[in-house]
Amino acid sequence: MSNKKNKEIQKEDSESEEEQESGSERDSDFDSDGNFVGDKELQADFEGRNPEDCDYHGIKQLLRQLFLKSNVDLGALAQIIISQNYVGSVVKQCLDDGQDDDDDDDDGSDGVFGITTVINITKRKEEPCIKQVRQLLTTLANDNADDRVKALVNKILSDDATHVGLIINERILNIPAAISVPLFASLQNELDKALKKNMPYLFQYLVWICKTYKTGDDDSEVLFANQEEKPLVDEAMASFDVDVAEQAELSQWDYEGGAMTPCRKVLIFEGGKFNQLVRLLKEEVENVQ
User: Fold this and answer.
1) What is the pLDDT of residue 16?
2) Measured between alpha carbons, how far is 235 from 182 in angstroms, rounded to an integer?
3) Exposure of 202 in the CB half-sphere (CA atoms within 13 A)
4) 117 close to 187: Cβ distance less than 8 angstroms
5) 255: number of Cβ within 10 Å
6) 91 pLDDT exceeds 60?
7) pLDDT number for residue 156
8) CA atoms of 73 and 92, how far apart (whole Å)
9) Would you say the pTM of this structure is higher than 0.85?
10) 3-state DSSP of the chain
11) What is the mean pLDDT of residues 31-48?
12) Which is higher by pLDDT, 36 or 279?
């Protein structure tokens, strides 16, 4: 299997050379975990590829953005993503002509800009890191959801005949939302191929954890880190919000309208809605361009 996929997107940087930041200012665009948090657009061509062993550190770093300080073995979770590389993609910078994959950094951690995949957390429920993910979902629901949603989460995680897919859609800031369209189109095709081979990717339910930020004194406005995920909320059969300010590096981020408090929105969908979700996120990207 070739590890390259036809999922390219280009992002131009419109700033002039005179407007570029100094070296010290560029350093401030990265948080303590090495994630890019500046407000400048990245100038690069990106493409989706099958995850490989060299992507381990980069995938783990992206998972840390999502799970923060939760009790989940992110290294083991990254290994699972790599082991099922026939489903899902990592976002990497396109190589220049003549440049070889072998020219990448030894650990590959600097080259992974995003990860989009789905993991069967029912089929893999005996693996330690998946046990941790399942326990995390149960705990978060019990602590933050209403009684109906608590009952649903406990029901779908306790029934071995009900296959639950955990969708992971994570990338560094300033990678454009448009990259998600070809990534999810590819994921659709990969799932179809896997199902034709009788692989365990027929899901009765899907769980999607979105990174969000609440703004204003009354938390009336919710911003999505991945803009394409916003319209998916109305399709969810259940959802609940989790305040993760205490786990984040900073409890609040400033933006032009005030301060933002980091949260997670957990969405639960019927498994048969996946294609509809992909259509909605594509429409959202097209509408904001």
Assistant:
1) 34
2) 21
3) 6
4) yes
5) 12
6) yes
7) 97
8) 24
9) no
10) CCCECCCCEEECCCCCHHHCCCHHHHHCCECCCCCECCCCCCCEEEEEECCCHHHHHHHHHHHHHHHCCCCCCHHHHHHHHHHCCCCCEEEEECCCCCCCHHHCCCCCHHHEEEEEEEEECCCCCCCHHHHHHHHHHHHHHHHHCCHHHHHHHHHHHHCCCCCEEEEEEEECCCCCHHHHHHHHHHHHHHHHHHHHCCCCCCCCEEEEEEEEEEECCCCCEEEECCHHHHHHHHHCCEEEEEECCCCCCCCCEEECCEEEEEEEEEEEEEHHHHHHHHHHHHHHHHHHC
11) 55
12) 279
- The first and second tokens of residue 27, run together, are 């350093």
Q: What is the pLDDT of residue 11?
A: 43
CB-count burial class (<10 Å; 0-12, 13-18, 19+) for 63: buried
Contact 266, 240 (CB under 8 A): yes
Task: Give how far the C-alpha of residue 97 lies from the chain's centroid of Cα atoms, to the nearest Å.
Answer: 29
Residue 150's φ and ψ, nearest 5 degrees, are -55, -45
Give backbone dihedrals phi and psi of 179, rounded to 5 degrees, phi first.
Answer: -65, -25
254 DSSP β-pair partners: 259
The residue ranking higher by pLDDT, 256 or 118, is 118
CA distance 229 to 280: 9
Tell me what the mean pLDDT of segment 50-56 comes to: 95
